[in-house]
């Protein structure tokens, strides 16, 4: 006999034992060339429809980007990047109060995005991309994600090298948090991100995931993004394409949550939320 269909709660709770829920940041790439979904959401209407879908799937934050950071990606000029992201941010803001993050290296783009309704600046250069980045972040008063990258997007995957990847990434992030605070960013607005895949081999990414507690111990919420990245195929020893890496992406998200991440940055929101909910129900995450 089949059970009668019961409506599921729109957003299954994963709060167990008073532990904070791991937030899910959904990715909206308004680009022609992002590594896994480039070109799919370059049209603003398609990007807004995608944002709507991720919100319905339970995204806590949307990360909207107008420039790909994949190895070898072509740089985008400021006006073009603003023209890509601002209409999408405005349209989403008009219909939802979901938290919006702008994924950009450029202070002028961050400023335009915040004016349009974003409240978080996700910067893969950790506010070191321009001399204006730190003062702009302080002036905007928004949350900031400081991410570690070795090298620059064009060449970062050529030959990443560290003596001790975990210690070096942690020291860099601590120094950038200090620089942000010295520039006037409120400590409570700062997030850190180890930057998986940004000048990191698969082994470097694994070491960072295994030792994420050392980054969480710096005292700021940690964001982790491993979704669909090529390391997953290397680690699994398969030839999967980006959209075939959901299993690996979820495994990495669960490991990050277990190690104390405050949020995971993912393409597949519904599936990640489901995995986090089930894992948390089985055994609460050990939180730092
Ligand atoms: N990864 C990407 C882009 N931005 N930001 C943070 N904080 N952490 C990450 O791991 C991260 C990021 C790469 O993913 P995606 O946006 O899908 O690709 P692309 O840069 O090609 O647009």
What keyword list fits this structure?
single chain, alpha/beta, eight-stranded parallel beta sheet, 8 strands, 40% helix, binds 6-hydroxymethylpterin-diphosphate
Hetero groups in this structure are: 6-hydroxymethylpterin-diphosphate
Shape: globular
Average pLDDT metric: 91
Helix content: 40-55%
Oligomer: single chain
Low-confidence stretches: 1-20
User: Could you give a short account of the major beta sheet?
Assistant: 8 strands, parallel
Secondary-structure element order, as H and E? EHEHEHEHEHEHHEHHEH
**Rg, nearest Å:** 18 Å
Taking the alpha carbons of the first and last residues, their distance comes to 45 Å
Report strand %: 5-15%
The largest beta-sheet arranges its strands as: 6-5-4-3-2-1-8-7
> By helix and strand content, what is the structural category?
alpha/beta
Number of DSSP strands?
A: 8
Summed up, the helix count is 10
What can you tell me about this protein's structure?
40% of the residues lie in helices and 12% in strands. The protein is built from ten helices and eight strands. It has helices spanning 44-56, 78-95, 107-116, 133-140, 165-183, 202-210, 212-216, 230-236, 246-258, 269-282; strands spanning 23-29, 61-65, 99-103, 120-123, 143-147, 190-193, 223-224, 263-266. Helix 3 (107-116) runs parallel beside helix 4. It starts with 22 loop residues before the first strand and ends in a 6-residue tail after the last helix. With 288 residues, it is of the alpha/beta class. Strand 1 (23-29), helix 1 and strand 2 form a beta-alpha-beta unit. 6-hydroxymethylpterin-diphosphate binds at residues 27, 29, 31, 34-36, 65, 68-70, 103, 122, 124, 145, 147, 193, 195-196, 223, 225, 265.
């Amino acid at each position: 006999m089949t059970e009668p269909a019961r409506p599921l709660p729109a957003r299954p709770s994963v709060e167990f034992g008073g532990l904070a829920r791991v937030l899910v940041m959904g990715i909206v790439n308004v680009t022609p060339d992002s590594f896994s979904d480039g070109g799919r959401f370059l049209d603003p209407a398609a990007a807004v429809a995608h944002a709507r879908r991720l919100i319905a799937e339970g995204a806590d934050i949307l990360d909207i980007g107008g420039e790909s950071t994949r190895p070898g990606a072509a740089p985008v000029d400021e006006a073009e990047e603003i023209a890509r992201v601002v209409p999408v941010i405005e349209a989403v803001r008009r219909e939802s109060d979901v938290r919006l993050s702008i994924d950009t290296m450029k202070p002028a783009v961050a400023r335009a995005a915040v004016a349009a309704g974003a409240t978080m600046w996700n910067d893969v250069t950790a506010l070191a991309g321009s001399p204006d980045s730190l003062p702009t972040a302080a002036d905007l008063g928004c949350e900031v994600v400081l991410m570690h990258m070795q090298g620059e997007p064009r060449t970062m995957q050529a030959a990443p090298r560290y003596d001790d990847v975990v210690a070096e990434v942690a020291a860099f992030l601590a120094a950038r948090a200090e620089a942000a605070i010295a520039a006037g960013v409120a400590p409570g607005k700062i997030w850190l991100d180890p930057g998986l895949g940004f000048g990191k081999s698969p082994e470097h990414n694994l070491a960072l995931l295994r030792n994420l507690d050392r980054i969480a111990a710096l005292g700021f919420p940690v964001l982790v993004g491993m979704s669909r990245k090529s390391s997953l195929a290397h680690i699994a020893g398969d030839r999967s394409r980006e959209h075939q890496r959901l299993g690996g992406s979820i495994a990495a998200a669960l490991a990050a949550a277990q190690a104390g991440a405050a949020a995971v940055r993912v393409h597949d929101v519904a599936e990640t939320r489901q995995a986090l909910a089930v894992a948390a129900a089985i055994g609460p995450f050990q939180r730092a």
